[in-house]
Predict the structure.
Amino acid sequence: MRISYERYNSSIRFYLFCEDADKVRSPHLGSQSEFSYSTTDGSTFPESHPDRVALVALLNSLPLAGERIHFGWPVSETFLEASKIISRVQISAEEGKQEPAVGNPSGIPCLSFSGGADSTAALAVMPPETESVFMLRKKSYRRSLYDSDAAIESCRLLSEYGKTVHIIESDFEYLRNPIGFPTDLSVATPSILLFDSRNFSSIALGTILESAYGTSGSNYREYLDSSHYRLWSRMFSAVGIDYSLPVAGVSEVASSIICKTLPEGRFHQSCIRGKWESPCQSCWKCFRKNTLMAALNGREISREVSKMVWRSREVRKHLIENKPIKHEGVLTYSLERAKGGGEAFDKLRKLVRVGKINTGWMERWYSHSESLIPESYRRFTTDLLKSTIGVMDEHDRIELENWSNHNDTKRELLLSDFTDLVGG
């Protein structure tokens, strides 16, 4: 795959020229594909260091490329050396001298902002001068359930509150078939493109504990040993960017507590299908978040939430087909503390091991994650996490690091009991 790019006033456009191996791996791309980024205020799209432009291209093309990625512009030896960690695809670039990108530890922290609870929790515990960059998903003729209304309103309210928020529109999700981000860090690419012009020092994401340390699934993992961290922290470092995960030690439970406690928290909405303050009340996020909020607010599960199990095919699909259920531990925490919901929820409580496992540790911060916060604001963020949600003690850490949730015969019987009641 050969990649080139051009700037056009308020936008930057990338072109992918596919070779035979690319057409085998990603036949939907055809011979040529493209994606772009545009400012939403009509301003001129800023210049970026060639290595950082290459990282943007890599984040969006790596899963799609067959055997090689060749950048049609010179990049530094530092970038090419770092990319050798990628074994499946060979990385190369046009010949030419290019000095490596240099970091700026005294610059401004940046957050790749989504408008959801986890992203907003990250912003709430970052320094006040942090600037947010929101990636606005460009509309297309291809059908999507996504609605940007709530996220745009979050950005507007944060701006009124005094925060600096940038909105960059992009269509890179249409490179994939089915539609979606090529890599999970593609969402940070607008921040990378603004890095030079805004004098950023780091880029943070709202990745939470369940995603970083594996407790959304079957087993705990040491994130620092993961292939994800080894690859992308290396590539970010190669282009002078501190890769930051300020809430990686914060469970979905604790991120919701942060949003309830700190002032920035009121500017979020998790549902990405409904309008601002009018969530769809039928998606998996609405089900999970509403159940959690009932637990945190000491309320019974509402009739509206209980009806989702019967009315939402998506909710039933997650509960029945995922083994284990994604973020099942958070659901266990919620259903242990939020009563009611009827017979279906009583069977669901048995399925997710309510009363059998401890989930109290999800309310507190896993301090082992502090190395994922840049030194420039580590003290600020860790002090705020400690004062807002507290720190896991040794017992909490043991519970977390021994997390295990596997499907077995007993679980299958409980699942069958639940499925017989609600339907497949």
